[in-house]
Amino acid sequence: MKNLTIELVNHPGALAQTGEILGRAGISIEGGGAFVVDGKGVANFLFEDGKAARNALESEGIRVLRESDVVVQRLNQDQPGQLSNLLRRMAEAGVNVEVQYSDHQHQLVLVVDDITCARKVSETWTREQAATQSPEQHPGKQHHYGVQITWTGNMGTATRSYAGYRRDHTITAHGKAPIEGSSDPAFRGDKNRYNPEELLVAALSSCHMLWYLHLCAVNKIAVMDYEDAASGEMVERADGTGRFVRVDLHPVVTIDSGSDPARAATLHHEAHQNCFIANSINFPVHIEPRITMSVED
User: Fold this and answer.
1) Residue ranges per domain, the chain?
2) In what helix (H) or strand (E) does residue 17 lie, and over which residues does it extend?
3) pLDDT (mean) for 265-290
4) CA 27 to mean position of chain CA atoms
5) How many CB atoms lie within 10 A of CB 31?
6) pLDDT of residue 133
7) Are 2-137 and 196-293 in the same CATH fold?
8) Which comes out higher in pLDDT, residue 143 or 289?
9) What 3-state class would DSSP assign to 190?
10) What pLDDT, on the 0 to 100 scale, is given for residue 83?
11) What is the largest CA-CA distance in the chain?
C-alpha cells in the first residue's frame, strides 16, 4: 500500500477530475481524504499500486507531491482509547504522525516520518493487544481448525520411564494425508519425522509466502519461483522449559523482467503484517528477502 499526497486546485470539480482520471485507469482509492489548507487543496489517498496511480495522475497534469509507505493497523472498534494508546506509543518512540485516516476496511492508516520505527511499534502493540483479549473480544469473522493427534510410541511399557517410550505420533485432519511427527532428536525424538518446532517455523514461512504471492498478484508482480530457507531459534532453560526467541525467513523470489523489483521487495513487509501466524506469536520474525529477475531465452 502507498499513500500519495496530491496537490489539487481549490475550485469546483478538481476532486471529481482526480477521481475520473483514476477511474479511467482502473485504479481504486482504498482510503484517504481531501482538505483545503491556507487556500490550497491537498489530498492524501491510499492505493494498492502507488506507481500506477502516480503515473495516471501525472499524465493528466495532476501534481503528486509525495509517495509514502504507510503503517496499516486494525483497531478494536469496541474498545475506547485504542487510537490514543497506539499514538502515544508512536510518540514515545520518537515517531511523528504526519497523516492519519481509515481505509475501506476500517483499518487505521498512518503516514509517518520514520516508517521502520513505526512498524516496529505497530507490530509490538498488535501482539500485546492479542495477548490481552479473550476470544469473544476479537472482532471479525471467526475460522476454526481441527486436527487429530494420535500417539503411536507405546513400546509396551507405557510411560513408566523417560527412556521407555517413543515420541512418535501422527497428525491428521479430515480428508488429508497424515503427517508423521516426533520430538526433536535432542529430546529423544525420531530424526526422520517432523517435530513441533519445525512445524512452527514451516507455518510462519508458508503463511508469509501465501500472503506474499497474493500481494504480488494484486500489484501485478509476476512471481516465477519462490524458495525460503527458514530457521528458528529456541532457548531451553535450566528447568527444561523453553521458548522461541526468533525466526528468520530468507525468501528468494524470482520475478519476470516486466515486474518492479523494488515493489516486489517492499511487499514482504506487507505480507508479514498480514500473516495470520506472524500476528499470533510473541517473538520477532526477521525477513531477509532477495529478489532476482528471470532470464528469458
Assistant:
1) 2-137, 196-293
2) helix 14-24
3) 90
4) 23
5) 21
6) 61
7) no
8) 289
9) coil
10) 86
11) 86
Q: Residue 181 CB: number of other CB atoms within 10 A? A: 22
Q: Does domain 196-293 have CATH number 3.30.300.20?
A: yes
The answer to whether 67 and 2 have CB atoms below 8 angstroms apart is yes
- The number of residues making up the chain comes to 297
**C-alpha cell recorded at residue 231:** 530457521
pTM over 0.85? The answer is: no
CA atoms lying within 13 Å on the CB side of residue 15: 14
pLDDT at 15: 86
Check residue 136 and give its pLDDT: 54
Model confidence at 139, pLDDT cuts 50, 70, 90, reads low
Residue 212 C-alpha cell reads as 506474499
C-alpha cell at 10: 481549490
User: Within 13 A of 254's CA, how many CA atoms are on the CB side?
Assistant: 7
Residue 262, C-beta contacts closer than 8 angstroms, at least 6 positions apart: none
**2-137 homologous superfamily:** VC0802-like (3.30.2130.10)
Listed residue (243, 260, 247) closest to 286, CA to CA = 247
DSSP E strand stretches across 38-118: 40-47, 63-69, 71-73, 97-102, 108-112
pLDDT for the residue 134: 56
Helix%, strand%, coil% for the chain, nearest 5 = 30, 30, 35
Residue indicated by cell numbers 506474499: 212
Closest CA to 150 of 188, 176, 182: 182
- Give the pLDDT mean for 21-26: 87
Q: Give backbone dihedrals phi and psi of 11, rounded to 5 degrees, phi first.
A: -155, 165
